[in-house]
Amino acid sequence: MKVETNFMMTRATCMVYPKYNEVGKLQSVVMENKELIQVDFKPTDLVDQNIRYHGSSLRGAWDGSRVILGGRFAMIPVIVSEKLNMYWFPLYSPSRPDCAWFALQRIHSYHRLNKKQTRVMFDNGEYFIANISYTNFEGKYVRACRLKHAMDRRTESLMVCESPQSATYLINRDTSDRNYSMELD
Fold first, then answer.
1. For 131-172, how does the pLDDT look when each residue is reduced to its tens digit (9 = 90+)?
2. How far apart are CA 65 and CA 107, in angstroms?
3. Which residues does the chain have with pLDDT short of 70?
4. In whole angstroms, what is the distance from residue 3 CA to residue 111 CA?
């Protein structure tokens, strides 16, 4: 597998998981549709790099998600790009080298495999066996869904609608005053 030195996650990206190369360096394997791509970044660093590309950082995304969701969750979901509908969540603590990341929009379903494993099916028909209980995986998935839902609601409530009024205003600042005045035109 060729190792990429730069990788931009897209809506086709399903997940990112860790892999050590032949000399023991931690890298990422990215599932992009049905293709696996090895990238020369740790999984959490790759997620951070992609969030930065869209104008924030992993730290900023965590802080924003905590404010939106309330509470103090560990392993909180993040928005990689709201415009592209890219919501991601970590399987474990992002500081752990074995942390994998999942794209919320690409998960088709997940099922209990046994007491400590969950089988995740992506919308491309591929599977990933997560070494985590069904209940823990579901909690992470539901939190990511709550984050997306909260952002959708906020966006809808802030949509600017044209006013049915046809009035035109003239807003002007008088040079002798600190305030602006408004007049109907």
1. 999 999 999 999 999 999 999 988 777 766 666 666 777 888
2. 20
3. 159-166, 185
4. 32
How far is residue 179's CA from residue 81's CA, in Å, rounded to a whole number? Answer: 39
3-state secondary structure of 168: coil
Q: CB–CB of 54/80 below 8 Å?
A: yes
pLDDT for position 33 = 94
pTM across the whole model: 0.84
User: What is the Cα–Cα distance from 163 to 51, expressed in whole angstroms?
Assistant: 36
Q: What sections of the chain are H helices per DSSP?
A: 43-53, 58-69, 134-157
Beta bridge partners of 184: 169
Helix (H, G, I), strand (E, B) or coil at 171: strand
Q: Which amino acid would we find at residue 47? A: V
Phi, psi of 94 (to 5 degrees): -60, -15
Outline where 83-182 has alpha helix (H).
134-157
Contact between 101 and 15 under an 8 Å Cβ cutoff? The reply is yes
Dihedral (CA of 5, 16, 12, 125) sign: positive
At residue 125, φ and ψ (nearest 5 deg) are 90, -5
Supply the pLDDT for residue 14. Answer: 98
Burial class (CB in 10 A: 0-12, 13-18, 19+), 179: exposed
